[in-house]
Amino acid sequence: MYLCDQVAQSRRETLVEDGGGRVHSVPGPADLAADVRACSTRYVLDATVRDTCLELLCNRAEVIRLEDRCYRIPHEALWIEWTDPAGAGKRAGVMVLADDETGRRGIMHSFSQDAASRPWAAQIVFAFDFDNELSDQRALCGLGFGEVRDPQAVERMFRHGMGRIDHRWLAYFRASGGLPPDALQQMLRSVAPDFGMLCAFLLLLSLECAVAQPRAGLDKINRARARTGKSLLLDHVEVSLRLAAVGEHGFGVGSSRSAARLHQVRGHLVRRAGKTFWRNYHLRGDAAMGVIASRTVRVSGNGAALRAGLG
Question: Core-most of 5, 49, 229, 307, by most CB within 10 Å?
Fold first, then answer.
């Protein structure tokens, strides 16, 4: 089961107890469950794409230039998830909500799995603006990037984001005696890599790619789950997206494919008559053939091809 399914099925509010024994309701997976269920497209990264994103952050951060036009949220809302390389198979993910049609600013919510593999929402919400810097060194809480090859390039990227704590978490921390600076820095460190993953993935998503035919949906699985009283998995069609694969499978879907059902197409750069412009996310297909309200996209790629595509 994907992490997005776990978040989408969350119903219980998240409760924590402060030092004085008072119970607080704080933001948790259930707060974003409806957004995940309504999200039109969810991306699931394989290990190659995940590792390429991490390699970009650690060793080639200078190629992530947020002023470039490819850095846009391609949907009104999207989910991205991957397997945490340091988490013994645990999954991590982000829910990204665009603030406007440009896709250049928005809010990112981070999720992970606890020791029992249950979904957990990060205490910090990350706002970002690719056109304007939101943070200075003080706002970054002394966050260092000494483990990367180019710390200055990474810091420039993170100046376009700003972490904030929900007022309900603040009430809990105040009742528990305050939030020490080192604890705040640790919380920021827990979500900062996710913003880096988002930026790196947007760069990879701008590469030429091939789309495979959709896999079968989950109707059979969900019928079996319904018979046993289990919650249904997200109603989605699952397709594959192979990055930097032109020449291997061809670009796009072959013309032999039957008329597509109505679905949302991600926003993308269009190059025409020597000009480049951004085409916002839009609907495509024939409603008479059916409607795809949401879909899960399994993203794969060849590491060498991805590196070649990045130059």
Answer: 49
